[in-house]
Every structure is written in C-alpha cells, then in structure tokens.
Amino acid sequence: MNRSEKVEAYFAEEHHYKKAIGILRDLALKTDLEETFKWLFPTYTLNNKNVLSVCKFKNHFGIWFFNGVFLNDPLNVLENAQEGKTKAMRHWKFHSLEDINETQVLGYIREAIENQKNHRVLVPSKSTKKVAIPELLAKKLDNDKKLKLAFYKMSDYKQKEFNEHITSAKQEKTKLRRLEKIIPMILRGEGLSDRYR
C-alpha cells in the first residue's frame, strides 16, 4: 500500500471517531499542507517538513503539532505529547465531535504553518554526553565481536535508544527479553524506531 492508500484506509476505517477525524482532515486540507502518512498516522507537511498529524485512539482523537511548543495556545488546550521525552510536540486532544470548533482549530493550524514558514522550530541539540551502556548489553558486546562492531557503527542516537530501552525496564526478566529482541536489530544495523521513520 502506498502512502495515499494508507491515508485513505486510516480515514475509512470504522471507528467511533471516524466523522470527527474526517473534520480535522478537511481543516488541514483547506491549507497549503501536503498530506502524507508517517508513523502510522496521516501527517501534514510544508516543504517536506512535518507540521501536524491527525490521530485517533480508544478514548480520544486529536492533532499533534510537531513544533507546538511555539504556538500561542490562547485556549490553553495543548499538552506535551509525551512528558519527559518530547520537547517540541504538543497534542490537542478531543473527546467528542462537539469539542471541535472549526474556526479555533483552523487558527492553530494556520499559526503552526506560519511558524514553519518562519523556521520557528526546535532543533535538537547535539549532546556530547554518552549514555552508559547497560551491563547486560556490555557483556553481550564483549562476548560477540560482530555484534560489538555493528553496535559501534550505529549513530549515537540509535545506541542511546537501545541503552535506554534496556535500562527503562524495571524487572531483570524484561531487560533480558528486550536484550534478546534488539540483538538481531543491531546486527542488521536497524535502529529501535526505524520502522516509524
């Protein structure tokens, strides 16, 4: 399925928020944004730069603004998309069709577009700080030269993702299970989040 087919399938799928996300889509398409499909969601771009995504979940639906941190937010509706992890993305959640005020939503979308045009975007800082390799992974790397070579060929970002994936598990058995899952990925040169990019 190509991207446009994925977008159509997303909006055609029977879901209790089907009509509501259709309205959000129509609002995005009233602008200069290009519609595509990334990270399992319809995403709207300007000059190939992500501006927003329309999303649906079990208990809410909404819009992700990729650089929402720069929006004025006069209605005080934006939330950090993932507290502690995302710095720029903001999420506007809705719980019913009646929550959508088209004029207000379009105002936020237009401001997000203007911010993108004016390059008001958060550029991630290049951290020189290395994340410590968890002991379990370090032992595997020491005992497998091929794995060690593959791991150190990866970008710092990908290495950090794998390190955090293991250290964020609370139980030892979960850490071991995660370690076994990532070994083939490392050998293939595949990052933990590559399939979402």
From TrEMBL:
Could you identify this protein by its name?
A: YdeI family protein
* UniProt domain YdhG-like: residue ranges: 24-113
Which source organism?
A: Croceitalea marina
| Lineage, highest ranks first | Bacteria, Pseudomonadati, Bacteroidota, Flavobacteriia, Flavobacteriales
Q: Which Pfam families match?
A: DUF1801, OmdA
